[in-house]
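> forwarded from #structure-qc
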């Protein structure tokens, strides 16, 4: 048998990377030679993946299995076994750990399954397969078949000293435009019944010395983003603060993404985040529901009043990206209850509100009680909920449509000013707004095709004018126009402005604006690099737009304003750099010929 081992990961997207296969390789490398890794995405052609697997000349193949890739992995393994019958195929990961006997029974081309935490188990299994030493009946944490039956060995104890697991990355040559994943802990202190972490009791940590060493490696390598897979990064609040303080001290451009429980945040945590440079940290906060009965049933401990207060404080710093999660389809949550949960979270105005749908994961407590909850789910991964005793499939479909327009409008970040004006102007709740907007999309059959950014601006304008003519007078529609114009210049900027947006007639002020740009604008901070540049060249770098209302402050005064903005983005600026000047000030300029 060939001794070469290939550990493969099939990621959900090209920008993702797999920490699992790297941890396994590094741990097994200490005793086994000839281990390689290969990464693909679910969007790759199956024949191209199969060709690469076959041409690797491996004798043993391992696959890391999750809800997003299990169907493709099983198809690959079936074909690989036909092309190479002598190959040994090993599966591992959460999607095969909870029904390993069934997986083996249904898929004769799978030889072994590694159950649960895989480092020690895979190393023992590979040593046995390659050297023939140590019987597989004595390896805890595996399932396999004999000629007569399928055997599931006793479970393996978790690795207590995580520092014994080597740093998973040899180099970062293949990580351009990709996210690097990293863990400083394993396990979770909470027992949320929809999550597989509830099956692992207790939290194990890397030492602080090890964490600091690893983080410095990422920073020195210039990694764009490191996403921690710790289930609750701040469950040990003091430890999380020390890690963030260390990152701040490195003064790097690397972004670190953390999943946190917002109600555990204390003043020290807040003070630390407040002093971080803009863009250094981003936080993902799983709210899931604000219904007390739902939270109790799923055993999720959360104080939403504390969550609300702390999220508002974090957003107030204006230096971090805040991502909030909701889950539709949980027990005791009907559409009325979910509407309240949605509104509670939306009103926090986070950078992103992800409306997800319950997935009944293998091994989760909620899946075990699905009959009690009247839950039906898809039989195929990711096992998403179809209906519950509280929500019909029609309700789920309605929320799916809402989720689509929420992604396009709020979560895209490209309509913030228009939406922040429009919802109060028409006096409706966020939930009701997105529900009616999704109904409008259905009535116009907009869901049938993708939409350009200009089309999205046009649709939102028509939606407001068509459905809310009784609530928006001409002055408010004019103000909406100005906010849409501002959003387009800040976030859209894809070719010409949509025709539906009314623009100021610049011809009457063009000469004065040109004179202002040459004589005064280029003396302002941010525009100095364009000083002494001929006007024709200057206009290639700086654009301008006249607004009929001052929509740049908290109160939109009836005052004509000129927005000057740099056409090409500046590094480290999330939005286009711009300044605004009252048109009356520009009109006072004396033109000297």
């Amino acid at each position: 048998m060939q001794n070469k081992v290939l550990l493969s990961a099939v990621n959900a997207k090209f920008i993702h990377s797999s920490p699992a296969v790297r941890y396994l390789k590094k741990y097994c490398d200490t005793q086994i030679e000839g281990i390689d890794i290969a990464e693909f995405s679910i969007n790759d052609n199956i024949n191209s993946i199969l060709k690469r697997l076959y041409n690797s000349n491996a004798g043993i193949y391992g696959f890391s299995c999750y809800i997003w890739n299990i169907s493709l992995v099983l198809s690959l393994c079936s074909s690989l076994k036909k092309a190479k019958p002598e190959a040994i195929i090993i599966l591992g990961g959460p999607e095969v750990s909870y029904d390993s006997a069934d997986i083996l029974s249904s898929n004769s081309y799978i030889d072994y399954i590694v159950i649960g935490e895989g480092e020690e188990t895979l190393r023992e299994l590979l040593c046995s397969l390659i050297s023939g030493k140590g019987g597989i009946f004595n390896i805890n944490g595996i399932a396999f078949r004999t000629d007569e039956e399928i055997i599931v060995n006793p479970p393996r104890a978790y690795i207590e000293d995580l520092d014994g697991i080597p740093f998973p990355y040899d180099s970062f040559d293949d990580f351009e435009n990709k996210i690097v994943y990293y863990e400083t802990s394993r396990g979770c202190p909470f027992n949320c019944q929809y999550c597989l972490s509830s099956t692992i009791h207790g939290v194990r940590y890397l030492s602080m010395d090890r964490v600091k060493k690893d983080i410095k490696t990422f920073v020195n390598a210039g990694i764009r983003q490191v996403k921690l897979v710790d289930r609750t990064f701040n469950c040990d609040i003091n430890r999380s603060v020390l890690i963030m303080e260390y990152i701040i001290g490195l003064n790097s451009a690397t972004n670190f993404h953390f999943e946190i429980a917002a109600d555990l945040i204390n003043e020290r945590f807040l003070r630390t985040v407040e002093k971080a440079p803009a863009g250094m940290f981003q936080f993902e906060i799983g709210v899931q529901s604000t219904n007390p009965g739902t939270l109790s049933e799923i055993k999720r401990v959360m104080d939403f009043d504390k969550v609300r207060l702390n999220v508002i404080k974090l957003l107030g710093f204006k230096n971090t990206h805040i991502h909030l999660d909701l889950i539709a389809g949980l027990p005791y949550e009907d559409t009325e209850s979910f509407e309240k949960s949605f509104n509670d979270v939306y009103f926090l105005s986070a950078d992103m509100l992800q409306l997800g749908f319950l997935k009944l994961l293998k091994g989760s407590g909620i899946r075990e009680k699905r009959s009690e909850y009247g839950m039906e789910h898809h039989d195929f991964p990711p096992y998403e909920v179809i209906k519950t005793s509280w929500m019909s499939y029609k309700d789920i479909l309605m929320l799916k449509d809402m989720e689509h327009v929420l992604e396009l409008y709020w979560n895209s970040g490209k309509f913030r000013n228009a939406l922040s004006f429009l919802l109060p102007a028409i006096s409706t709740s966020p939930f009701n707004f997105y529900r009616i907007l999704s109904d409008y999309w259905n009535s116009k059959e907009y869901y049938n095709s993708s939409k350009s950014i200009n089309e999205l601006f046009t649709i939102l304008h028509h939606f407001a004018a068509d459905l809310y003519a009784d609530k928006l007078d001409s002055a408010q529609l004019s103000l909406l126009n100005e906010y849409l114009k501002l959003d387009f210049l800040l976030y859209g900027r894809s070719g010409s402005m949509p025709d539906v947006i009314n623009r100021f007639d610049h011809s009457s002020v063009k000469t004065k604006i040109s004179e202002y740009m040459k004589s005064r604008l280029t003396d302002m901070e941010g525009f100095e690099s364009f000083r002494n540049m001929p006007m024709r060249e200057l206009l290639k770098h700086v654009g301008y737009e006249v607004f009929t209302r001052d929509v740049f402050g908290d109160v939109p005064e009836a005052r004509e304003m000129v927005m000057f903005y740099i056409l090409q983005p500046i590094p480290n600026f999330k939005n286009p750099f711009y300044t605004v000047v009252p048109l009356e000030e520009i009109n006072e300029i004396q033109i000297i010929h």
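QC bot note: Residues 427 and 471 are 8 Å apart (CA to CA). The chain is about 40% helix and 15% strand.
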